[in-house]
Amino acid sequence: MNCTVEEISIEISENADAEQSLPIEEGLNDFNDLMTGISDRKPLSVLIKSTKTGEVLGGMQGRSSLGLLFIDLFYLPPELRRMGLGTDILNRFEDEGRRRGCSAAFLYTISFQAPDFYKKHGWEEFGRISCEPEGTSRIFMKKTL
What we know:
This is GNAT family N-acetyltransferase. It is a single chain. With 145 residues, the chain is α+β, with helices and mostly antiparallel strands. It is built from three helices and six strands. A six-stranded mixed beta sheet has the order 1-2-3-4-6-5. The longest helix is centred in the N-terminal third of the chain and has 19 residues. The chain starts with 17 loop residues before the first helix and ends with a strand. The relative contact order is 0.12.
């Protein structure tokens, strides 16, 4: 597509849907594939489901790409914490990353979330940035797989 500046508009949106986001994702993926010669990105989820209803109760979501594993989201309802499920989910996620050939894993957590959980499992902090509310930080962590 060839456009001039006069033929485009710029919009700010809080609710772009998947269809509107697809050209951004596909465009960046195509560029990365062209630059690296590698197209190995794959989503990854480890889900905790109710055996009665099949409902997803929690779990971990992320992806693998270019030999790296990314954890994007991790949630367990309070009643399922402190039962070893978090460790099991993390281990399964990391194991699948290794199976996919990933050599390292990355995530960020918030200071009131789970940095100590990750440290207990061999993750190390490599960056921190302050955020709201005051005294809170986003903590960037990595682990060699």
